[in-house]
Amino acid sequence: MADEPRIIQVHPQDNVAIVANDRGLPKGAVLPDGLKLLESIPQGHKVALTDIVEGESIIRYGENIGSAAQAIPRGSWVKEALVTLPSPPDLHDLPLCTRVPLLQPPLTGYTFMGYRNEDGSAGIKNILGISTSVQCVAGVLEYAVQRIKAELLPRYPHVEDVIALTHHYGCGVAINAPDAAIPIRTLQNLAIHPNLGGEVLIVGLGCEKLQPTRIVPDAGDDSIVTLQEHAGFAAMAAEIMRAAEERLATLNLRRRVECPVSDLVIGLQCGGSDAFSGVTANPALGVAADLLVRAGATVLFSEVTEVRDAIHLLTPRAANEEVARELIAEMQWYDDYLRRGEADRSANPTPGNKQGGLANVVEKALGSVVKSGSGRIDGVLTHGEKANRRGLLFAATPASDFVCGTLQLASGIHLQVFTTGRGTPYGLALAPVVKVSTRTALQEQWPDLIDIDAGRIATGEATIEDVGWDIFRFILDAASGRKQTWADRHRLRNDLVLFNPAPVT
Ligand code: CA
User: At residue 407, what are phi and psi to the nearest 5 degrees?
Assistant: First the structure.
């Protein structure tokens, strides 16, 4: 059965389908409906289901992903070079709120075990996070954190980790430029991330442009360690350790309590996508997103460049015109940003995406947005803005995995679900990252990195619904500390990478 030639056609109107077999299909292979391949086609790549004439639309997901650069006979491999990139949807001519989904019935009976914070939010980890106002202090802080972990943390067993929130910002930057608001807002919101229990500690240098009080305006003097005020390296480290120990003692008193799912903020991302992303992992994540929203949670989806070409499918789902216009404004901002850098959307996808069968950013976007599920889009967050309401929100971020991760953390995600086809060992220190593979071959190659295999959908072993529920349950288990993601088990932590579109001086 597994070796029978198999293709996946997403939508009845599609004139292409992707090859499902792990090793691809050879020339001459005959599909169950009699279609014979005119050439060998790798896994995930597209086969023409009909004779396509030059200039005709190539249809996948029921949408135009480009026009044929030349005639493509039925049974041919529809290679990237044969698909001419279409124009992106016109932002001035989009349908607004024309198909607002009805609210689905609430999903009750689900909770998780989290940490209650003083401000009313909940955390799913109990971490001491030490913020920094400038990169200059990173070396000293990292030395201190190593010693805190070795000498202090063992005495506070209910604290899960100590992390330095280091970054490249803080000085040598045009701090009053309009776009500087993005990195500054990101640092402000990271310092008060819900998994940090409200215990603020900021290490600054003294002379930097971004002063610690700008990160947390109500941070008292006892929450700030200024290195230039201390007599040498040893004194600096000792002061950081003293301030850290005070906070470890407070965090150590915390215990998990039962919390409603409405306390959760979950981020969705994809990286290293392939042609299966849009038929296995992302639709399953869409089911999980719908379940989370029904259970009262907040769900963020992001990645402007991977939403831009499918924006005409999102503005109809906006809860109201204001939300639709905010969505469009974020698309416009990014169009302008790319234009300033003399780049365009063809800068995405990557060579790996293309090897995985994705012809262009349109095909990637159509497969990407399905992870937002089927629900109403309730709100829009600009870069690094904290989630301010429940439901399904679009949080503007670049698609870059670590930049998106950092910005979603600033928006307050407790956990991120990450779908991948090509595979990436990406992880975050502040939040668990649940890895979902688009193909079983990846899960078999990386059994100690992939948490959930959505490739079972392509082989018929599981339905999209089944895997959606698996993701939903895994999220609640991970949020409760009952299950650890592989990224956390191996302590895989990518850097915090701030999005700074403003000038560096
Ligand atoms: Ca990404």
Answer: -70, -40
Sheet arrangement for strand 265-270: 377-381, 391-395, 298-301, 265-270, 415-420, 433-437, 452-453
Cα-to-centroid distance, 433 and ligand 1 (Å): 13
Q: 467: how many CB neighbours lie within 10 A of its CB?
A: 25
| C-alpha 176 to ligand 1 mean position (Å) | 29
**Paired strand residues for 52:** 72
**Predicted TM-score (pTM) of this structure:** 0.96
Q: What is the mean pLDDT of residues 276-282?
A: 95
Non-local CB neighbours of 330 within 8 Å, separated by 6+ positions? 304, 380, 382, 394, 396
Quote the ligand 1 centre to 32 CA distance (angstroms): 36
Q: Helix axis angle, 464-479 relative to 281-294, nearest 10°?
A: 60
- 310 Cα: distance to centroid of ligand 1 (angstroms): 16
Q: How far apart are the C-alpha atoms of 324 and 377, rounded to whole Å?
A: 9
Query: Ligand 1: distance of its center to the CA of 81 in Å?
Result: 24
- Look at the block and give the residue holding tokens 């992302």: 282
Strand partners, 164: 130
Q: Answer whether residue 346 shows pLDDT above 90.
A: no
The count of other CB atoms within 10 Å of the CB of residue 185 is: 18
- Of how many residues is the chain composed? 505
Can you tell me whether residue 15 is helix, strand or coil? coil
Which residue type sits at 486?
A: W
* Cα 485 from Cα 465, distance rounded (Å): 21
CA nearest neighbour of 140 among 225, 77, 73: 225
The pLDDT value given to residue 37: 97
| Predicted confidence (pLDDT) at residue 158 exceeds the cutoff of 70 | yes
